[in-house]
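Input:
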Amino acid sequence: MKKATVAAAALGLMCAASSAMVSAQVKGVYWTTSGFAGPFPISGLIPTVPKEKQRDVTIPISTWIIDHPKGLVVFDTGNNVAISDGNCKSYWAAGLCDFLKPSQKRSDVIDEQLKKVGFSPDKVKIVITSHTHLDHVGNIAMFPNAIHVMQKKELYQGWWPEKFQGRTSPGTFVMADLASAREFNYLELNGDYDLFGDGSVLILSTPGHTLGHQSLKVKLASGATMIMAQDAIWMQENVDGYPAGLNYSVQDYTNSLNRMKFMRDIEGAQLFYGHDQDQYAAKGGRWYK
Ligand SMILES: [Zn+2]
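Output:
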């Protein structure tokens, strides 16, 4: 083969490879919040925080929109729409409303958030739910035609929580959130999963906060890697060594947190926490590409 032919063939191969890579790239990730909760003492969530580090926090209820060429993805659907505009006690337990003080307005709810960034809610192909607590699975029923991705154990947990995590509904689990979603189309997982088969959106099994909690790892077109921990890491204090309260298993929680810290340190992944007021103020409400 002549040199020019070899070069042309090589170029063709490179083009084929790069176009394959382009099709595999996430177009963008948008970080938003289903309103805020608070202010309340940080010790209400993280009892291990020492006295000198006590402060009041007003936390975001993180939800994520991921635009991939093979489909629009929502990661967590936030607080149920019924608690919007001061109507918390009509749907959540009064005690939780008094402690959490959710500020969600109707315009903060995931369907409206999708519209704000140019998407019709019925275009959502996949809904990934980190876990079945009230501030993450609240609006799953808004997406009856989507594929719903959850750890199989979390489905068990959502419908029959451990007694020590509270079976009274509404509590941190709100049975009504899931009631109309029982017959949805679930991709039931037992561990990690490469969502589009191209390595761009990886579901990470991160149990501990609940029995079947999962997080997300997204590789952007820019080459950056984001990890949306959701409640596997609430906020910076957890990374600083103060374990969260409310855990199903402290051992699993610690292993999950460490796993993501190693991804940060070895791969250079950026960690995004589920409920960190300072991080959301600095980095929330915008696109990542
Ligand atoms: Zn949460």
